[in-house]
Amino acid sequence: MAELLFIPGSLREQSASKALTQALVSRLSGACGTSIAEIGHLPHFNSDIPPTGRLRCS
User: Fold this and answer.
1) φ and ψ at 23, to 5 degrees?
2) Which of helix, strand or coil describes residue 53?
3) pLDDT at 33 over 90
4) Is residue 39 within 8 Å of residue 9, measured between CB atoms?
5) Per residue in 8-19, pLDDT tens?
6) Phi then psi dihedrals of residue 53, to 5 deg
7) I need a surface site. Which of 15, 16, 42, 48 has the fewest CB within 10 A?
8) Is 35 strand, coil or helix?
9) Burial class (CB within 10 angstroms; exposed 0-12, middle 13-18, buried 19+) of 39
10) Could you tell me the residue ranges of all domains in the chain?
């Protein structure tokens, strides 16, 4: 069975992208596996901030 990961592109609780994501997940229920990743929980990249040493950059 296919697995789909949805990442709505907004931090706002009542955003259109979150509403669309929830509608898609509900519509696809049973046809495939679905997960929603909250964008606020993902690490963000900003090239203006020097690395912290936790990750090695080549």
Assistant:
1) -65, -45
2) coil
3) yes
4) yes
5) 988 888 999 999
6) 95, -10
7) 48
8) strand
9) middle
10) 3-41
CA geometry: angle at 20 spanning 16 and 24, to 5°? 175
- What lies within 8 Å, CB to CB, of 33 at 6+ separation is 1, 2, 3, 4
Residue 33 phi, psi (nearest 5): -80, 140
Q: Name, in order, each residue with C-beta under 8 angstroms of 18's C-beta and a sequence gap of 6 or more.
A: 8, 10, 12
Identify the pLDDT of residue 48. Answer: 76
| pLDDT tens-digit series, residues 19-29 | 999 999 999 98
Average pLDDT value for residue range 39-53: 74
Helices (H), the chain: 16-28
pLDDT value of residue 55:
54
